[in-house]
Every structure is written in C-alpha cells, then in structure tokens.
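User:
I study polymers; will you set down one protein's sequence and backbone structure tokens?

Assistant:
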Amino acid sequence: MKIGLYFGTFNPIHIGHLAIANHMAEYSDLDKIWMVITPHNPFKKKSSLLDNNHRYQMVLEALETYDKIEPSNIEFNLPQPNYTVYTLAHLEEKYPQHEFCLIMGEDNLKSLHKWKNYEVILERHDIYVYPRISEGTVETQFDNHSKIHKVDAPIMEISSTMIRKAIKDGKNIRPLLPPEVHTYIDQMNFYK
C-alpha cells in the first residue's frame, strides 16, 4: 500500500488540512493518507500548543467519516526532536509492507535542502508537493527531480495560527473547522 504522510502540529486541524489531505487521497496514486501529529516542539511556547493527546483527539474526530485518511501518533513515542528521516526509518521498519511518501507544501520544499539527511529522504521516498503562496524560491536541484511530484491541489490560505488568534479575539470561526473540532475546542475552552 502506498501511504502519504502529512505531518503537522494540527493545532487545531482545520478545513484547509482536510481539503489538502482529501485532494491527495482522491486525485493522486496514494492509497491512504496518514495525518501524523507532531509532538510538542521544545522551541515553541507551550501555551500556544495543545497537549499531544488533545490534538490527536481533534484529528481523530475530524477524520471519522474519511475512509482514506487516518490519524497517526507514531511520533509521540519517538526520540525528540523529531526528524522526518528518523520517523520514515521507523515506519519502514515497523510496516515493511507499505511504501511511504511525504506530503508537503511548496513552502517546505523551499527549505528541504536544510532538513537533516534530506538526500536520504529523496533517495528512498517520493514527495508530493501542494502549492502554497510563500516567499523564496525552490532550489534548482529540486526542479525536475524524479521523486518530487507537484500536485495541482487547491491553494488553502487558512492557518491554525489565524484560527487560534480569531478564537482568542472572540470571532466566529465555525466555517473554518470540522464541526466535531469546533465542538471539542468550544467544550474544552481551548485557545481563549
């Protein structure tokens, strides 16, 4: 099975994340999408990032009706900080029957050359890139790379940062969140 790994803090997961994951599931050759919730980054302020399990729960609830997309907490028990190359090696060892690919925004592709062991990632894994409006340019070495596939997905200009700020400011952000996630955030009184 060909599995696309969509990494993120998902703090919170929103309709932009779902639209991209669903587009990858429906319009690419990927069989399944795993949304990999990234644990707390020691360099980020703890106040801005909900506990791993709360973020996992929101992703789980958001994906309940999606057959081809599922949550993954695989990084929760791996050494910190999480480097993608190590996560991929762990997944290959644990699930040798699957082929793992990365899903990333074009903004991440622009900094891929700075990732730990990015050459190993490119040697062993395909990367599916969705468009993002961002500064900078993609390194020429990635322009026509056989492992990098640009996907004509919708451009989503919604961010979790914007949503957290809107909630803090008392704005109605209901249309930007899956209903289950909006309910969960509201009941738990998060981001206020």
